[in-house]
Write a structure and sequence with these properties.
Layout (H helix, E strand, L loop, with lengths): L1 H5 L4 H9 L3 E5 L2 E5 L2 H18 L5
Length: 59
Amino acid sequence: MVVGLLGSADENLRALERTLTAGLHVRGNSVTLSGEPADVALAERAISELVAIVAGDSR
């Protein structure tokens, strides 16, 4: 799931890092976010949407 989420050569991760202010750290199957609470909340929502897309649930 994480590979699908991050994209080929981590392209999705790089796009998130360019777009979001929160820090994103990936280790294995774990994604850790850091930064201001509002920035982390936005990053959580963005990642949740990506997870839904990867899982096939476009809502």
